[in-house]
């Protein structure tokens, strides 16, 4: 074999060939793995896809973890998807009637930040079957307990559960430590949606659930207000063993009547033409007392001998006066 033939052989076999164009072959290989066929198609029963806009923390991004596991493929902007697309741009909600589309063409999501939705070119992504998700509560570590704030894997799992493929939802969520908690947290809601048929019936069930939540919130608020009132005691009565100021005043007035009541309660009262009270008899009695007192005083001065009841004392006094008299 000639040296030139040898070189051609090495070139065909790729033995010592070096990449050209500044590593173009390496970049092409990465792009093919990123946007090519789903490498995890054999691992997961249905197709999974996402449009990744690199807005999330890679360490917390559920979509990127699914991609690392080989379960989902990333789509380019401008590339459409034939299956169910869970997107804020959807017109109807996911419903059990979407089961066939999911099983035949899979499901896709938009991997982005809730805070940066206005940056997403929704007109350049999506597909024929864009759907919203009905009311559900997030169980992920970032938005736990918040309604609507589902991440990528929760959105895909919700889609599978609503169409009746709870097995797919469980398998997908099992790759996350908190994942199965999403199904438990929304168990009653998901079962309610599974009993529906089309998008309209799911929407009606969602509205009924939201009304129920509102009623329960109002009832809790009312009970809380009632509990606060009872904690303060009976506002119409004082504390046990204590009397109000009004009761004290009333009891004092009953036990210790005022001077005017003490003076006038037993006296007959007459009224003049203007309605003024006149205690006439009392004044007359007082006048009579004064007159009798003055008469007694006059008697004392006019008849001092009346006060001397023993006549022997009078003769003794006269005898002593005679002895003292000067002849």
From TrEMBL:
It catalyses: an N(1)-methylpseudouridine in rRNA + S-adenosyl-L-methionine = N(1)-methyl-N(3)-[(3S)-3-amino-3-carboxypropyl]pseudouridine in rRNA + S-methyl-5'-thioadenosine + H(+); N(1)-methylpseudouridine(1191) in yeast 18S rRNA + S-adenosyl-L-methionine = N(1)-methyl-N(3)-[(3S)-3-amino-3-carboxypropyl]pseudouridine(1191) in yeast 18S rRNA + S-methyl-5'-thioadenosine + H(+). S-adenosyl-L-methionine binds at residues 62, 110, 133, 148. Residues 84-210 form the 16S/18S rRNA aminocarboxypropyltransferase Tsr3 C-terminal domain. One of its GO terms (cellular component) is nucleus. Residues 46-80 form the RNase L inhibitor RLI-like possible metal-binding domain. InterPro entries: RNaseL-inhib-like_metal-bd_dom, Tsr3-like, Tsr3_C. Its EC number is 2.5.1.157. Residues 1-43, 218-327 are annotated as: Disordered. Keywords: Cytoplasm, Nucleus, Ribosome biogenesis, rRNA processing, S-adenosyl-L-methionine, Transferase. Residues 247-258, 280-298 have a biased composition (Acidic residues). The keyword Cell inner membrane does not apply. GO terms for biological process: enzyme-directed rRNA pseudouridine synthesis; maturation of SSU-rRNA. Its main location: cytoplasm. Aminocarboxypropyltransferase that catalyzes the aminocarboxypropyl transfer on pseudouridine at position 1191 (Psi1191) in 18S rRNA. It constitutes the last step in biosynthesis of the hypermodified N1-methyl-N3-(3-amino-3-carboxypropyl) pseudouridine (m1acp3-Psi) conserved in eukaryotic 18S rRNA. This is 18S rRNA aminocarboxypropyltransferase. It comes from Lachancea lanzarotensis. The lineage of its organism: Eukaryota, Fungi, Dikarya, Ascomycota, Saccharomycotina. The gene is TSR3.
């Amino acid at each position: 074999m000639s040296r030139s033939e040898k070189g051609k052989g090495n070139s065909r076999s790729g033995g010592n060939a070096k990449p050209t164009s500044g590593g173009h072959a390496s970049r092409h290989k990465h792009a093919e793995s990123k946007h090519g066929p789903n490498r995890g198609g054999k691992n997961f029963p249905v197709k999974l896809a996402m449009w990744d806009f690199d807005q999330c923390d890679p360490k917390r991004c559920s979509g990127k973890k699914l991609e690392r596991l080989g379960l989902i493929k990333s789509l380019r902007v401008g590339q459409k998807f034939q299956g169910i697309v869970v997107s804020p741009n959807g017109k109807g909600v996911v419903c059990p009637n979407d089961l066939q589309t999911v099983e035949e063409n899979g499901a896709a999501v938009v991997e982005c930040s809730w805070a940066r939705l206005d940056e997403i070119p929704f007109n350049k992504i999506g597909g024929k079957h864009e759907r919203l998700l009905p009311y559900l509560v997030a169980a992920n570590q970032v938005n736990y307990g918040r309604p609507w704030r589902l991440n990528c894997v929760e959105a895909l799992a919700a889609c599978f559960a609503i169409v009746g493929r709870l097995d797919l939802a469980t398998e997908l969520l099992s790759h996350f430590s908190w994942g199965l908690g999403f199904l438990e947290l929304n168990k009653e809601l998901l079962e309610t949606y599974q009993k529906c048929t089309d998008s309209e019936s799911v929407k009606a069930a969602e509205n009924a659930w939201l009304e129920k939540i509102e009623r329960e919130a109002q009832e809790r608020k009312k009970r809380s207000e009632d509990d606060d009132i009872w904690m303060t005691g009976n506002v119409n009565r004082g504390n046990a063993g204590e009397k109000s100021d009004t009761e004290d005043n009333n009891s004092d007035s009953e036990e210790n009547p005022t001077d005017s009541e003490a003076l006038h309660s037993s006296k007959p009262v007459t009224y003049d033409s203007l309605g003024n009270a006149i205690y006439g008899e009392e004044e007359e009695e007082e006048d009579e007392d004064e007159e009798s007192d003055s008469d007694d005083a006059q008697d004392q001065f006019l008849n001092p001998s009346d006060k001397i009841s023993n006549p022997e004392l009078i003769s003794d006094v006269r005898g002593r006066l005679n002895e003292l008299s000067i002849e």
